[in-house]
Each structure stands twice: as structure tokens, then as C-alpha cells.
Amino acid sequence: MCRIEPKVRKPGRGAKSRSTQPEEPSTSKAPAAVSEVAKKHLAASLTDRSNPLGRITQEQWKVVEMKLLEALFAKIDADPSATMPTFDGAGWVSGVKIIKCKDDLTLIRVKETVKRLQGLWEGASVEIVDRSCIPTIPKAKVLIPRTVNPEYALKLLQRQNTDVPTDDWKMLKVAKSASADGGQNCIIQINKTTEDILYARLGKSMA
Fold first, then answer.
1. What span, in angstroms and rounded, lies between the C-alpha atoms of 146 and 2?
2. Do 33-133 and 136-202 have matching folds?
3. Of these four, 56, 80, 145, 207, which has the most CB atoms within 10 Å of its CB?
4. Computed over its alpha carbons, how large is the radius of gyration of the chain?
5. Calpha distance 47→170 (Å, rounded)
6. Cα 81 to the chain's mean position, in Å?
7. Which residues of 58-90 are buried (b: 16+ CB within 10 A; e: fewer)?
8. Number of C-alpha atoms within 13 angstroms, CB side, residue 197?
9. 3-class SS at 170?
10. Domain positions in the chain
11. Which CATH code for domain 136-202?
12. CATH of domain 33-133
């Protein structure tokens, strides 16, 4: 039999005993930490509310990117002396486009411009959100006592859990178990309904 459980985050380690002497402030780590916080704050996450996970495709991003450029050119024509937005690259997180702004003014302008975008794809509902608001994919960790084909492992799990919706489950990762009995650990993508059911049963939060 297979045991399915929510994939939980590891709890933090217990606090170590500390000296009663006051610690000297760190001069090397503090600036770096502040810099990282600033970078996260200025990361504009472009999501599409019409997608359950807020995702957009590469082709959809090209459409949005061109619209943003057109808005920038229009701003230049209207006010050549205006301060232009500046960027520090872009990337992807869980299918969501991340636009890295260099300052708060750029972030504000990107948000305002995205709100006014028109002529996108059918049903589009694009919005800039904080990176922490990117919808997460519910996952579960499953121990398979024997090493089997991942495709069959997924089918087995679907057949054994008929009391929850499993049609859209996907196998994300398979790794050899550290157990002496062997087997394999599987990380599967489940759905929100299943996540809620498992949380109610086991009292654990999904990763």
C-alpha cells in the first residue's frame, strides 16, 4: 500500500544557547540582506487572473511586452524630459513572468500601465502582484514501497484515492527512498480540493 501525505515544510531548528555578551553588529551581511529585500520588493509579478495559477505563456508575454514598449514610446513622445522607467532584467517563477524594476517609480508605472492594457488575448485579466502572492501548486509526498514506473505509480495512487478528485494529478519528481526497505519517494501535483481534504484529515499544511 502507498501512503500519501501533504508535502510539508521542515520546521526550523531549535534556538541555540547564546552568550550573555551583546553581539557585534554584522557589517558584511546586513547590507546584502537589505539589498535582497529591496530586490524582492521591486519584483513585479505579471499574472493572468483568468488562469487558476496566474500563469501566462511565452507568446502571451510577447504580446504584453510589446504593449509595454508602446506605452513607453508614447510617454517619450508626450514628455521627452520625463524620467524613464529602468529595469534590471526579467525571469519566470511557476509560469508567472517576473519583471525586475530598479526603483519604486518604475514599479508604480509598470502597475499603472498594466492596468490600462487593452487588446490582449481573449479573456485576459492581467495584473501586477507582489511575488509572495503568486499562486502555489498544491503538492503531496507519497512513499511507494517498491521501485515502479512513475506512470504506473500515479495510476495506482489515483485508483487508491477514489474519494478525492485525482484526474489532474501529475507526477513531478521521483527519488530513491532513504529507507532500508528501498522503494521511492514521489512528489505529485494535486489540486486545491485534494489539498483541503488532506489538510482536514492530517492537519498539515501543503508546501
1. 10
2. yes
3. 56
4. 23
5. 22
6. 38
7. eebbebbeebbeebeeebeeeeeeeeebeeeee
8. 13
9. strand
10. 33-133, 136-202
11. 3.30.70
12. 3.30.70
Q: What is the pTM of this model?
A: 0.54
Given CA atoms 107, 109, 115, 118 in this order, what sign does their dihedral have? Answer: negative
Question: Using CA atoms, how far apart are residues 84 and 87, in angstroms rounded to an integer?
Answer: 10
In whole angstroms, give the CA distance from residue 51 to residue 41.
24
pLDDT digits (tens, 9 = 90+) for 139-197: 888 888 888 888 888 888 888 888 888 888 988 888 887 666 678 888 888 888 888 88
Res. 67 pLDDT band, cuts 50 70 90: very high
CB atoms within 10 A of CB 48: 23
CA distances from 206 to 72, 187, 199 (A): 41, 12, 8
